[in-house]
């Protein structure tokens, strides 16, 4: 059977660093509060002239270079994002043009912080069915443009960034062994961006009501996130006859350290079995898992045959996991 194997990873973080001390000058908060509640120390913020497609292209170029293939070999490009350059066309189409991926179909996936895992699952199905040989999957976000910088409950959490992987159809037992996707739209109002869409079309009044900015009920999101991240990680392991002891590295969506620690403890994983970089880049939504993966890969932490679990949860609600033999 054909499997989708990750043959290249890449990532990009904007240069500008926003520290907790910087945030103290913007809203009524403290480094102490942010560090204790979230573990986040700093996050990256895109420059004014940097768009989501720019971040995506930078990450993709590095992933293609590592994979050793050229963009015109790609059969498809899927971008997981909720902060695309435009409502439409898709950011994937902009990336397709910039990379000159002339043969590739291109589309975005909207699954908030689960966007990368949803996109990866979609691409791997095309590969397993024989419809694609090479695929580029990207998670890219410029959340700083939809954050309410007057809302201390949310503005401390998020950052900008992008991560990418190149997939190749290969025979054998390496690559993506299974993917598991879930959704429950019943709780959409706990984490969403109210405007501007067909429900709240663009209006001056809407701007005054701050509708274009992310809204979140943090406490309720926290509880559901921990439960869902745990459940779907267990589902992925059990499907493959594995247990937590077999996991080399868990790559959870980097929401905040308390969520990650709660998930790790429930899964009974040792500290070194979970990769965490939320301290330095904050919650980058759909970009967080491929960003963390590329960082770990370039540090030389991944060995052939290692069992990796990608584990995501986000607005929708959506959640999902991918089990990978590296
Ligand atoms: N600085 C100082 N005080 C603050 C801040 C801040 N930045 N933000 C909130 N507070 C205050 C609140 O106003 C509240 O004060 P009150 O008791 O006087 O009303 C107090 O701190 C406690 O607020 P809670 O919301 O109960 O704090 P909690 O312990 O739940 O922590 C947090 C808040 C960090 C947002 C937490 O709920 C959380 O991590 N939630 C998950 C959020 C998340 O990661 N979402 C994304 C996951 S999915 C995705 O990535 C899209």
TrEMBL record:
Gene3D superfamilies xref list: 3.40.47.10
Catalytic reactions on record: malonyl-[ACP] + acetyl-CoA + H(+) = 3-oxobutanoyl-[ACP] + CO2 + CoA
Region (ACP-binding): 254-258
Xref: Pfam families: ACP_syn_III (PF08545), ACP_syn_III_C (PF08541)
Keyword Lipid metabolism: yes
UniProt KW keywords: Acyltransferase, Cytoplasm, Fatty acid biosynthesis, Fatty acid metabolism, Lipid biosynthesis, Lipid metabolism, Multifunctional enzyme, Transferase
Protein name, UniProt field: Beta-ketoacyl-[acyl-carrier-protein] synthase III
